[in-house]
Write a structure and sequence with these properties.
single chain; about 290 residues; Arc Repressor Mutant, subunit A; D-Maltodextrin-Binding Protein, domain 2; elongated
Length: about 290
């Protein structure tokens, strides 16, 4: 069975007219008719009842129609994948990264990715986790690095590494004398709030509605401003273990309860991978991520 025979059969099935089917396939009608007859000979029976003003599928034709459609769809998918593979010469990828994931965690990974896809045109969107979830579902980004306590069933996730939550503070703070900081120790402390921080989501996932009552001094969406304020001694802030990037910031693990998060590679389940996404996923899975391995 040849692909042009499948294409001609589907065209006649759709138009129920050999002349229109030949026009649709940009082929002479005798050629189309000959190909259909050869297909019928191979399958062992007539596929169409041919009448002067009416053509319709035989019982055998109706039987093989869904198989022919699947063959055509598979061929189209193979051609699309082949075309996508060729675009690896200049691939494009839109990546979402949750704003609390430290850039320093990404350095070695990006270097490894660059070796696999040296011509990759990578666009990174940094945002809050819930915003990136929406972007993924709507197709505005291809893939994301997220650290949320749970994901919708529509997503496929691959765990990369885990990290504890810590309290960040400046040198000289009383927390410096502690090996760990129970959550209740934050009561009454000057505190810096990172807007849209996912820490409370992890906290509530443990079944705890209220953890501490601190004196909020400053609120912002920007991670760099939070860390600058911490370093200036304005207040303390909860952040992931690998989050602090400014030299001099001190941290202690949060305890009672201890809270941690898992950073995951997230895609939309069932959505076809482009070659660039497939390469990205393979590099991420085999990469030796810093921190606690899962």
């Amino acid at each position: 069975m040849e692909m042009h025979q499948v294409r001609y059969f589907l065209a006649v099935s759709e138009t129920l007219n050999f002349t229109r089917a030949a026009e649709q396939c940009h082929v002479a009608q005798p050629s189309l008719t000959s190909a259909i007859k050869k297909l019928e000979a191979r399958l062992g029976g007539e596929l169409f009842h041919r009448e002067r003003n009416r053509t319709h599928l035989t019982e055998l034709g109706r039987l093989v129609l869904p198989h022919m459609e699947r063959i055509s769809e598979a061929a189209a998918a193979a051609e699309a994948d082949a075309a996508g593979f060729r675009t690896l010469e200049n691939p494009t990828l839109h990546l979402g990264v949750m704003s609390t994931i430290a850039a320093r965690q990404m350095i070695d990974f990006v270097a490894a990715l660059n070796k696999t896809l040296p011509n990759l045109n990578l666009t990174i969107r940094e945002a809050a986790g819930k915003s990136l979830v929406k972007d993924l579902l709507e197709g505005d980004i291809d893939i994301a690095l997220l650290a949320l306590p749970g994901f919708p069933d529509a997503f496929h996730t691959t765990s990369l590494y885990s990290e504890r939550y810590t309290v960040a503070f400046a040198s000289g703070h009383r927390f410096e004398m502690l090996n760990e900081v129970p959550v209740t120790e934050l009561n009454g402390e000057d505190y810096l709030v990172r807007l849209h921080c996912e820490f409370t989501d992890h906290f509530e996932a443990l079944g705890i509605k209220e953890g501490f009552e601190a004196n909020v001094r400053y609120s912002t969406e920007r991670e760099d401003w939070i860390q600058a304020m911490v370093l200036a001694g304005v207040g303390c802030s909860i952040m992931p273990e690998f989050g602090p990037q400014m030299p001099g910031i001190m941290t202690r693990p949060v305890t009672a309860p201890a809270v941690s998060r898992t950073v995951s590679l997230v895609t939309v389940a069932g959505r076809r991978y482009t070659p660039a996404i497939d390469a990205f996923v393979r590099v991420a899975r085999r990469h030796d991520w810093p921190g606690q391995r899962l």
